[in-house]
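#lab-general

N.A. 3:47 PM
ok so I finally got the sequence cleaned up, no stray characters, all 192 residues accounted for. can someone with queue access submit it? mine expired

B.Y. 3:52 PM
send it over

N.A. 3:53 PM
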Amino acid sequence: MVQFIYFILYILFISNDLIEGLLESKGYGCEMRQSMRLNKRLHGFPQKDQPPFIFQFINANGKHVKTYESNRNYTVRVVGFTRFKGFVIQARATDKEGSMIGSLTEGMFIEDHLWNKLGIQYQSCSKSYPTMDSVTHSNEKQKYIVEVKWRTERDVGPIQFLITIATNDKIYWERWVPISGLINPKQYPSNH
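B.Y. 4:20 PM
back already:
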């Protein structure tokens, strides 16, 4: 009888992991939205080395930039030297030195015609209060590139793009802070 109970508990434990894994195939869930950390029980521990990806912040003219202006669209691009399946991208508020201010997200991602093709969706956690400040994958197809539009309606100070990205269920980098992802508001010259 004791063995049977252990067997049932084991099956329940395994099925819970299986269900979580199946749910993640359509994007990472709300439980990791603020922390940007994947479930260690399901995924193991993150990689400690530098991720094999490039982060780019591009203006409307196709130029890589380190500053933004409000009410203008920018392209946020992650390119992989290896294929990846899952990701979450957010723009986080920072101080002048680039240290993130809690889990405060800034700006919004703008859905376009590429989202379906590239497997992108909003990481929406509330139907009554939808947010557009976090994007995740919408399928498990292998990807080499993620490209989304981002903007802010006002100067929100410096921001840092924060990324969790997985090549498969066991190989992933969490809370990647790309150096090229620290973006400052554009400073206008003084009229004095």
